[in-house]
């Protein structure tokens, strides 16, 4: 399965969750996800991955100007913590999580969408997929692209009305439904995670005890 609208396809195919929110900053998005004001530390994808794997034993040569003390003080070495990075594209912000499902929570999506619109997309390592769309603190549309006939939310047809994703799902192999739906939804809404985010230093936080 190819996730063409997320960078670093192979990395993201090992499982990912992404939330997009319109008209708020990356730091505000992270604060809404965490449910408290945050002070992020800028990290590249390579730095974030190294911290996730090695914890406090991370090679300091990978950290650039970021000190181990600063990371420790920010809670970046928290055990069972979701490491999240956020950025912007057009008038949307995004927050990404690799290899976990913390961001897949409906409660988080609805909290993020207060006063705006938000889209959540997730794919597990076993290729279980889910897409949800919320506005003003309420989930309007929520579904598994492999079973598009079962749509949940207070306005199940809202995301179809905005994007026309159903045609994409039914045009092609069933196993690629998530990829096709994601392409169309992101194109129509104008949100994506640009390739540059892998190398760029983006605001990052760690949510302790998320897993």
Task: Explain the overall architecture.
This protein is of the alpha+beta class and 211 residues long. It has helices at residues 9-12, 26-34, 45-54, 68-74, 106-112, 158-163, 165-169, 177-189; strands spanning 16-22, 41-43, 82-89, 92-98, 117-123, 129-135, 138-143, 151-152, 202-207. The chain has a nine-stranded antiparallel beta sheet, sandwiched between helices. A hairpin with a 2-residue loop joins strand 6 (129-135) and strand 7 (138-143). Helix 2 crosses helix 5 (106-112). It is globular. The model has no long low-confidence stretch (mean pLDDT 90).
What topology emerges from the helices and strands here?
Elements: H1 9-12, E1 16-22, H2 26-34, E2 41-43, H3 45-54, H4 68-74, E3 82-89, E4 92-98, H5 106-112, E5 117-123, E6 129-135, E7 138-143, E8 151-152, H6 158-163, H7 165-169, H8 177-189, E9 202-207
Antiparallel strand pairs: 1-4, 1-5, 2-9, 3-4, 3-9, 5-6, 6-7, 7-8
Helix pairs in contact: 2-5
């Amino acid at each position: 399965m190819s996730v063409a609208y997320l960078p670093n396809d192979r990395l993201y195919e090992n499982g990912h969750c992404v939330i997009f929110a319109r008209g708020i900053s990356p730091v505000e998005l992270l604060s809404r996800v965490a449910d408290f004001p945050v002070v992020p530390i800028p990290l590249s994808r390579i730095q974030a991955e190294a911290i996730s794997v090695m914890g406090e034993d991370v090679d300091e040569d990978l950290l650039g100007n970021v000190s181990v003390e600063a990371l420790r003080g920010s809670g970046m070495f928290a055990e069972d913590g979701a490491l999240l990075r956020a950025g912007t594209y057009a008038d949307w912000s995004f927050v990404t999580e690799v290899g976990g499902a913390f961001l897949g929570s409906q409660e988080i999506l609805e909290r993020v969408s207060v006063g705006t619109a938000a889209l959540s997309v997730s794919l597990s390592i076993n290729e279980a997929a889910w897409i949800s769309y919320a506005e003003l603190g309420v989930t309007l549309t929520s579904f598994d692209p492999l079973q598009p006939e079962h749509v949940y939310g207070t306005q199940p047809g809202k995301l179809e009305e905005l994007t026309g994703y159903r045609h994409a799902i039914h045009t092609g192999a069933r196993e690629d439904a998530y990829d096709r739906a994601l392409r169309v939804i992101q194109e129509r809404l104008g949100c994506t995670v640009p390739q540059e985010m892998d190398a760029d230093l983006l605001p990052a936080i760690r949510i302790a005890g998320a897993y």
